[in-house]
RNA sequence: GCGAAAGUGGCGGAGUUGGUAGACGCGCUGGCCUUAGAAGCCAGUGAGAGAAAUCUCGUAGGGGUUCGAGUCCCCUCUUUCGCACCA
């Protein structure tokens, strides 16, 4: 018979809600603990990825509550963004309506799962009470010079008159109208995240983050030490600055590679006719979308401008080329090409017959330029480099940089791959940027008292593909806050990453209407103790949030350096080896599974199927297995309820216990220790659950419970009681029900963690494996107090061991305490 | 292409510091129960050889370090995630 999960789950969800046990207090004697899962985009129904994420977070939440912490686990919705806008267009509705509908459905499903969220702290980024503060932050950024406007190139579809995301560009064509996408220079708002580059490289403020996330962020920031070298344009006083990490190769520079966006190229173009070859080449490169441009397997192409610059170190003439492989955003946007010592330059020079010059010779001195099939990129000693000839190339880096600086040819500099964060979006469903453009006053901030700038509701979406805000005249036309004359609003909205960069802080004070949140509460709760979310956010979201947190610290809103102390990056839910997605048709609906087996079963399956940071492979049979396990627990209690009730508080510490009952007590205490350690120190829930399963098997192995004596019954009762006590964090409804059935009157979250007695874990015999030349040849059981000599002696007495070492000399014997004996023979 | 990670039975996975590979679950096989099935309970289950004791092989592939390697090092292959307007 199946246990009545439906009744039990509803019952406990109601009790938890009524008792408000998940509503965190701001003022309490208890220590605070903040558990946070990445908030979802409200897509309408929970999917398995959510269920997995929140099952992990909920287990941690409940565990910390048992430990006596005042735990806050809030939840909200990342509800702005392109998908909501597209969804509304498709359904001929308004994102405000569809989003609210979706949130209602999700909320119901959160409740059905029994997750312990503090709903009094709920936030939704598309609500004016929330996005007001995003505007407020934008203003503070602007005031500190951290928000600024510059032109940059964007994927542009002229048919739709709109900017396209990279994912909306398919093979260089617009996903909607299939017309060619080209790069258009547009004015965009940026946040100066590069200002914090150095600080973002420092992870000393976090307690426990996966190494790989730190590495990915470090690589993304891409700090590199190098030299800026100043080349003079021929017949001009103009300087072209290049950035290089290899100033040692400066004497080998034979040409210069620039992107078409480079200011000097734009200047060259002005002198050319519109249909000149140079114009056509630039247009072609610019029309490649940014993915193609940055991919390194793109075929390198170039166009010689016919212009030259002078190499400052020896005044040699350097050809100036326009290329498709140099990025305007990195370094100075110009590259000095040294074909003999850089593979990309080498290939390019071969293709276009550009001269090469060998300036680094290898140790044996046998490099011949004409015979080289590849660039020589290794260190060596300098040749053809004037007074630096013969110098070790690596040592020369500093020397040459210094010499160049002294002679006004360049300077040492640090460059980052990290670019400033472009936050402008030409879309409706986002947070309006609080800027007004006035003909007289220029760019003016909207005064704080006018915030929030609410999104106009009466827009027709989908009529044009342009930003719908452009056509809402009554919204766009405003009076200038400074001079009162007619002015226009900024119609760009902010990247939704802005909304998700500070939401964790809003939860501490979600209803504050004078500030984003109070400093007092932020200090109490931040940083988030445990953050849980997908690995796909390893770089962008997590880095933007770190940047925002440091910015909020500089505003004196928070007093910590990092937003998230511990980070757990959970894997995806897959089925048939692929991520669940509608297009693959391998989606399993949590609702269906909960209806059939209950929320506890789904949670247990999710947590048992793999460790949290790895992907979870969905398995219908596996779910049944989890359900079977919970049923076994239920039936154990149903059968022995009276006995457990009677004996649960009786003494079980009789030292004369023997046989299977002694083993059972060992199992109970060992399981408690192992499970708590797996949860607390390793966040490894799959092995924790496995340990409880194993223990349950041990309990089931005890037959004729009624025939046991009182002490033994107490041991048996104890072994049963441990199960709901440990399972509470994974299967809270079932555990809570059993806990109350056996006569406890405090709920489990308030009952402390299970306790174990170290005395019951002492073994009197220890098994040693015997290895000969690394192969297991036998096993011995020795008493726990045996000396190393005793162990060696008994190892050599084993028949099979004797046979293996016959006629050989024992060279060495190694005894690894509590594990094995290794014998080396010759 | 660049950056990051992963690869262990038929399947999901365990193996925490280099120390008995395969815990636990699924599946499969057999038994009990049942008129039968389902459910449940009990047992077996990496491959190969052998009557057995036991032996050989085995953690993507190849090499190395070590008394001992799934674990450490080098190379190769495959898969997954991210690459700045998806969130």
Word description of this protein:
The protein has 826 residues and is α+β, with helices and mostly antiparallel strands. Among the domains are: 153-186, no CATH class; 225-416, Alpha-Beta Complex (Isoleucyl-tRNA Synthetase, domain 2), CATH 3.90.740.10; 619-761, Isoleucyl-tRNA Synthetase, Domain 1; 765-825, Roll (Ubiquitin-like (UB roll)), CATH 3.10.20.590. Strands 10, 11, 12, 13, 14, 15 and 18 form a 7-stranded mixed β-sheet that branches. A 4-stranded parallel β-sheet has the order 2-1-27-28, covered by helices on one side. Helix 18 crosses helix 19 and helix 23 packs antiparallel against helix 24 (732-741). The relative contact order is 0.11. The model has no long low-confidence stretch (mean pLDDT 89). The structure holds one RNA strand of 87 nucleotides.
List keywords for this structure.
826 residues; alpha+beta; Isoleucyl-tRNA Synthetase, domain 2; Isoleucyl-tRNA Synthetase, Domain 1; 7-stranded mixed sheet; 4-stranded parallel sheet; 35 strands; 20% strand; RNA-binding
Quick rundown:
The protein is 37% helix and 20% strand. With 826 residues, it is of the alpha+beta class.
Record the SSE blueprint.
Layout (H helix, E strand, L loop, with lengths): L4 H15 L12 E6 L10 H19 L3 E3 L3 E2 L4 H9 L4 H19 L9 E2 L3 H16 L3 E11 L4 E2 L5 E2 L2 E2 L6 E11 L5 H4 L10 H11 L1 E11 L5 E6 L10 E4 L4 H8 L6 H11 L2 H5 L7 E9 L6 E7 L11 E3 L5 H10 L7 E2 L19 E2 L10 H14 L3 E7 L4 E2 L1 E2 L5 E2 L2 E4 L3 E4 L27 H4 E3 L6 E4 L3 E2 L1 H4 L3 H4 L12 H7 L2 E7 L5 H15 L9 E7 L2 E3 L2 E2 L10 H8 L1 H11 L6 E2 L2 H28 L11 H24 L2 H16 L9 H18 L4 H10 L23 E8 L2 E9 L4 H9 L2 H7 L4 E7 L3 E6 L1
Parallel strand pairs: 1-2, 1-27, 3-4, 12-14, 27-28, 29-31, 32-35
Antiparallel strand pairs: 5-6, 5-9, 7-8, 9-19, 10-11, 10-13, 10-18, 12-15, 13-14, 16-17, 20-26, 21-26, 22-23, 22-25, 24-25, 29-30, 32-33, 34-35
This protein binds one RNA strand of 87 nucleotides through helix 7, helix 10, strand 19, strand 20 and strand 31.
